[in-house]
Automatic annotation (TrEMBL):
Topology within the bilayer: Multi-pass membrane protein
Annotated transmembrane regions: 123-147, 167-184, 191-210, 216-239, 251-273, 279-298, 343-364, 384-405, 506-524
Family: Belongs to the major facilitator superfamily. Sodium/anion cotransporter (TC 2.A.1.14) family.
Gene encoding the protein: LOC103320598
Main location: membrane
Record-given protein name: Sodium-dependent phosphate transport protein 1, chloroplastic
InterPro entries the UniProt entry points to: MFS, MFS_dom, MFS_Na/Anion_cotransporter, MFS_trans_sf, SLC17A9-like
Amino acid sequence: MNARALIYSFSHKPHIPPTDISAPKRSLCPDSRRHTPFRFRVQIQNREHYWVLRVSGRDSGGGKRRGGKVFADVKSEAYDISESVDKFEKGLNDVPSGKEEELEEEPLAVAEASWLEQFPKRWVIVVLCFSAFLLCNMDRVNMSIAILPMSAEYNWNPGTVGLIQSSFFWGYLLTQIAGGIWADTVGGKQVLAFGVIWWSIATILTPVAAKVGLPFLLVVRAFMGIGEGVAMPAMNNILSKWIPVAERSRSLALVYSGMYLGSVTGLAFSPFLIHQFGWPSVFYSFGSLGTVWFAVWISKAHSSPLEDPELRPAEKKLILASSVSKEPVKEIPWKLILSKAPVWALIVSHFCHNWGTFILLTWMPTYYNQVLKFNLTESGLFCVLPWLTMAFSANLGGWIADTLVSKGFSVTRVRKIMQTIGFLGPAFFLTQLSHINSPAMAVLCMACSQGTDAFSQSGLYSNHQDIAPRYSGVLLGLSNTAGVLAGVFGTASTGYILQHGSWDDVFKVSVGLYLFGTVVWNLFSTGEKIIE
């Protein structure tokens, strides 16, 4: 704001007492006239946010002493007092006579800022992470739709399809722990940027690899897994630094709902693109979006609030007040981490959860096509409903979890409640599929199964930052490694089971693991910090 002064001129009437002018906006007296020369002295006081100039003097003719004040709303900068006196004298002499002059108030800095600048920076980071996970699942699920025309073109049997689907997890498995270590030591910004651009390039190369041969396709899908494998640890590292504890469940739920909406977008648009432009168009179009995200991320994101020069002081104070140490991790205490029972509860529960989740992610369109007899377009569209349900349920669960914590429920109790829903809900609805003959009811069961599954985002997926906030990236890498192993074995074994059994057998394995995970989680998990 520009410095400016509101000047009170001295009246020629000797009996009018001096008046303070403290309002920000004032009209000057219309009958003011120039004064006769007088001697004056100036006293300056700093009253924290403004300056007060006290002026007193006598007429050269020996009249009564008169006084007044001048208020200035100025920035606290070094100032030459001789200049201020000269300007003050000039201001007295330049007061217009017989006119009213309106001094307009300048808008506050807050009002001048754009809406985007006022939006909390920590939630800008959350939205960008949400967008990254949206692209992550768009690029992942497009294969589950494109595999149908691809298998027809290249004569792949169910075993080969299962091998292709699982090859993604070979690379995904390799970078879980490595991505966590990298994020905790280097910073989440660089790691997540690398992951997005890497998997986007691999997505674009998928059609070329398929035409060259099956081994090349398997390698490219594994390369894509390498890029997506670092995304979760990097995101977890960033949010552990940017998000206060009271907003943890909601922020993570929003980011993970990006995965679900990515599945919705991929499953909804893939059939259309395949019918209009052929199956390679899915990989070309989806993969190219990653370059756009990369450009925005590099210009807007920072690994921690301490590195952001544009972060407002009030928001920085809010974030740092309830945060852990922002010093980079130099050494990982592996022995300490692996000696804790809650860590193993996380690892086992993550395995049990991901077995069912990844089977539905990769095999759901095939189930709709083979069992419910939906065509390619219908399979893609009906697959959208469960993922929409998950996006809604994840954010609902995050709001419920944060509300319970704010009302005094222990974090441990909240995490156990949310994860129990995330296990027992899918287990119940999957058991109902074998008793249903209606396609509509089967789709509804799938939607309810996935919807209750999403409560896990406020359970085990929020627990890494609870028990070891400084090592949250490494800890997520550890538990997600187990989750990826579930994806590798679950996706590949589903193809084997379908060759020798039925879909009921596939669902029974998932239900058994959900029940086992429920027991382990409620016995050994905690929401308290166990590793400093």
